[in-house]
Design brief:
By secondary structure, the protein is mainly β. It has one domain (about 10-25, about 35-235): Sortase (Sortase, Chain: A). Helices cover about 10% and strands about 30% of the residues. It is built from 3 helices and 10 strands; from the N terminus they run ββααββββββαββ. The strands form 2 sheets. An 8-stranded mixed β-barrel has the order 3-4-5-6-9-10-8-7. Strands 1-2 form a two-stranded antiparallel sheet. Strand 3 and strand 4 form a beta hairpin. The termini are far apart.
Length: about 240
């Protein structure tokens, strides 16, 4: 069975930073693991190191511009992920870009940060996607994302400074393609700004959120994609 990249959904450019509209629907969220201490907004704002300096140049690009490498790694010890990050915009068909090269391409091992979402580690929601499998049907970078559970750690590491920001998984849910385009899930994935054509907005709770997204379920040839999307939510704790 031929398998390809994840297709997150439909995106619409409304402002220069873009608006993201995704065909998901909400299913009830499980209770969050409260055995952690999230960073408050004032702590995040005064942290000595953050990702802003590493991604600021890419954020100046329009969402129609090609993907660019940024000096950041995404590290998820529980599933053996250590992945270079690319800053991406959207495709011509208005989907969040997830570059897909040939069989030997590094695209299958890269992760993709939507540069219309928040900067990873900033107060807001940063959206990072990855492929579930490659052209051979083997696991790609997020092939084991469904194994994550509340309490697992995610690290976003600045490869220039060596400093990492630590996130903890709070929930993971799969959404069918039939559960289409509801604001609760759009806001969960992107925060409240991009789904309505605005820049990334600070989160209401003053925390730095991270959404990891990949395909799930069964490959549907007629749709040229899988029939589910997996969304793993995390919050910054250090």
């Amino acid at each position: 069975m031929k398998k390809r990249l994840l297709i997150i959904g439909t995106v619409v450019v409304v402002l220069i930073v873009g608006a993201v509209v995704i065909t998901f629907a909400s299913s009830p969220r499980s209770d969050l693991d409260t055995n952690y201490t999230p960073m408050a907004a004032q702590q995040i704002a005064t942290a000595k190191h953050n990702m802003s300096s590493a991604v600021v140049a890419s954020m100046k690009l329009s969402l129609e511009s090609p993907a660019v490498n940024v000096p950041i790694d995404v590290v998820i010890p529980a599933i053996g992920v250590k992945s270079p990050l690319q800053a991406v915009g959207m495709t011509r068909s208005h989907a969040m870009s997830a570059p897909e090269g040939g069989a030997g391409s590094s695209d299958w091992s890269n992760t993709f940060w939507y540069r219309g979402s928040a900067v990873p580690g900033a107060v807001g929601t940063a959206t990072i996607a990855g492929h579930i499998d490659d052209r051979f049907g083997d696991y790609a970078v997020f092939g084991r994302l469904s194994s994550l559970v509340a309490g697992n750690r995610i690290y976003v590491r600045n490869t220039k400074s060596g400093v990492s920001e630590e996130f903890i998984v709070t929930s993971a849910h799969a959404y069918t393609l039939a559960q289409a385009a509801t604001r609760p899930v759009l806001d969960l994935i992107y925060g409240t700004g991009p789904p309505v054509g605005q820049p990334a907005q600070p989160s209401v709770d003053g925390l730095a959120h991270l959404s990891l997204v990949t395909c799930a379920g069964t490959w549907v040839p007629s749709l040229d994609t899988h029939n589910e999307r997996l969304v793993v939510s995390a919050v910054r704790i250090r």
